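DM from R.C. (forwarded with permission)

"hey, sorry to bug you on a friday — could you get me a structure for this? deadline for the figure draft is monday and I only need the backbone to look sensible"
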Amino acid sequence: MIEKLHKAIELRNQKNYSDSEIILNELVNDYRKNAQVYYHYAWLCDNMEREVEARPKYEKALELGLSGEDLKGCYLGLGSTYRCIREYEKSIAIFDRAIKEFPLNNEYKVFKAMTLYNAKNYQKAMNLLLNVIAKTSSDKGIQEYQKAIEYYSDKLEKKI
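My reply, with the result:
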């Protein structure tokens, strides 16, 4: 099973999606309780811009249990998929869960900001993005004004 999964991943990485899908479809049928198989199949569906098909596969992978890099990737994939199919509340909930479990992984905050933007919550989206930029940028100018960026991140609507 592991060899077949690695082959499917390799084919996906080479953008040979149809051959990867053949293998992943076989693996899902043969190993219905394997979270990694569902996760990688969902990832493939995402690569093929078939987010509606990816969603239940990501959900099944989480239900069956993942860990490490696969769990991190599944949170990102599912949260992004929810955003793409306009399930904004679910997207935000998944990103909040990911942020709680992996607080040092700023990618979840950035993707959550995209969802907040799509949900027309522009202030929260900008606040989140500005704080990520202020805390993570190595740009000299950003670092020089880090405190100001953080201070104004939740005061963008303030007028004198």
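R.C.: lifesaver. The CA atoms of residues 16 and 22 lie 11 Å apart.
me: no worries. The radius of gyration is 19 Å.
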